[in-house]
Amino acid sequence: MELLLGIDVGTTSLKTGLFASDGRCLGIERQEYQLDTPSAERAQVDAKRYWQACVQTVHSLLERVGEDPAKISALAVSSQGETILTLNEDGEPIYPAMVWLDNRAVSQAERLAERFKNAVYERTGVAEIIPTWSACKVLWLKENEPDVFARAAKFLLVQDYLIYRLTGRFATDGSVACTTLFFDITANAWWEEMLSAVGIRADQLPEIVAPGTAVGTVCSQAAAELGLSTHTQVVTGGMDQSVGAIGAGNIQPGVVSETTGAALAIQVTVDDPLLDANRSMPVYFHSVPGKYLLVPVCPTAGMAFKWFRDQFGQVEIEKAESQGLDSYDLMTQPAAAIAAGSDGLVMLPHLMGAFSPDTNPAARGSFTGFTLSHTRAHFVRALLEGVAFMLRRNIEYVEKVGISVREIVSTGGGSRSRLWNQIKADVCNKPIKTLQNEETALIGDAILAGVACGAFASIAEGCGKMSAALETFTPGKDVTVYEAAYRRYCALDRELSDYYANYFTEK
C-alpha cells in the first residue's frame, strides 16, 4: 500500500496529513502561527516560520503514526494564494512574508487598476485590482523598501517557497499563481505587461508547471531536516481552494462547495473562465486540467471566530487544554440555546476588509444592535450567523450568473460545528453536506500526489476513494426567522459602506 503526504499552508496554520492509497487517513498534524499586524492595514509573517512549521508537523506526524518514510511515494504541497515572499540570490528570505490579507498597497492597486482596468479580467480572472493581489504588494515593496527590492532575486508564493525548500527548484502552477496579477489564465504564462508595470522580470518568478506535476524528489538537505526519503516525489498541488475542491469531489460543473477556514471561500467548477458577463466574480485556474473555478472569497470567517476566542474565551481555552476538549465547542454550546437571529444582534465579519461579492478594503468588523439583555453567547451566535449571511450573499450571486445550487458541500474547520452547519442550512435554505474528513485541501493534495506517482489512474478515481460524505443538514424551522435577519444584515452592510470609506480609507 503506497502512502501519500499532503502539506497545506493556510493563513494561520500549516497542516500535514498522511494517507494510504486506499483512502484511509493515517494522521494529521497542525502547527499554528500568529500573524504580525503592526497596523490595521498590515498582516505579515516571518517567512521562515512556514518551513519551521512544515518540519515540526512532518516530524510529529511520522513519529505518531509510526510508518516507514520510505513508503511515502509522493507528497503534494498547496497553500494560500497571494502571500508574497522575497528571497535574495542565496535563496534566503529578506523581508517578512506579506500575507494576502495585507491591505497596505492601496495606492499601488489604484494605479495598476487605472492602467489595466480594461484588460485585467480577461487576462487574470480577477474582477478588480485591490491590495490583496501579489503584484500590488511587490510594487509597494519597490516604492517603499527600495533596498529590499534591489536585493530581491525571487518573488515566491508560499507553496513555491516550500517546494524550493523541498527540492531546490523554483516552480509554481497556475492554480496558485492565478491571483498574483502576474499570471495570464488563458495563456498559462506570465503576463509580461504586468511584470513590466511593476518592474520585475520573468526570471524573478518561478517556472510555471501544470498543477499535479512532480517537480523533483526530496533533496538531501530537506530529507535530513524532515525525516523523509530522497525517493519521495514532490508534486505541485495548487491554491488551497483548488485542491480543496478536489478533496470535496468538486471536479465537474454543477458542484458547489464552500470552505470555512480562516477565510470563507466558495468553489464552483466551470468550463468557461469568462462565464460571468458582469466580470465581478473571481475566476481561478483549477488544479483539475482544463477546468476553472469561480471563487468568491471573504477574508475573515473562521479567523473572526479565532479572534473572538483569543480575546474573550480564555476560560474556554484553559478548560480545553486541561480537559482535552475543543475550545470552540465550549463556546458554541451556550450559543445553541440562543434564538435564531440573536435577538437583533447583527455581526459584520469584515475584520480585514471585504472582498466578495462587494469589494471594500476599508470595511471593518461590527457588532450592532446589542442591549443590556445580550450575553456573550449572543455574540458567538451572531458571529456564526454573520459568516452564514456572507455565504448566502455569495451563493445568491453565483445563482445570478446562471448556476444552479441545489446543495452545498461544506468543508474546512468550520464544518465540524453542527450548530454552524445548521445555521448555514437555515440561512441559505439549502442542504449542507459535510464530509468524513473536512480537511479537503490535504485530501486534494494526496489525490494529486497519488495521480503523479501512479497510485491513482485519474483525479476522479482518487476522489472516489478518498472523498466520502458524512452528514446532510436540511433547512429547518428557522428559515423564516433568518429571512428577516438576513435583510437586517444586508441593510447594515449597505449603510456602513460609506462610513468605512469616509473614515477608514488610507489617505
Structure description:
With 507 residues, the chain is α+β, with helices and mostly antiparallel strands. The chain folds into two domains: 3-248 and 440-466, 2-Layer Sandwich (Nucleotidyltransferase, domain 5); 265-272 and 301-421 and 472-502, ATPase, nucleotide binding domain (Nucleotidyltransferase, domain 5, 2-Layer Sandwich). 40% of the residues lie in helices and 21% in strands. It is built from 18 helices and 24 strands. Strands 15, 16, 17, 18, 19, 22, 23 and 24 form an eight-stranded mixed beta sheet that branches. It has a six-stranded mixed beta sheet with strand order 3-2-1-5-14-13, with helices on both faces. α2 packs across α4 and α14 packs across α15 (418-428). It is globular, with a radius of gyration of 22 Å. The termini are far apart. The model has no long low-confidence stretch (mean pLDDT 94). GO terms for molecular function: kinase activity. Residues 4-247 form the Carbohydrate kinase FGGY N-terminal domain. This is Xylulokinase. InterPro entries: ATPase_NBD (IPR043129), Carb_kinase_FGGY (IPR000577), FGGY_C (IPR018485), FGGY_Carb_Kinase (IPR050406), FGGY_N (IPR018484). Belongs to the FGGY kinase family.
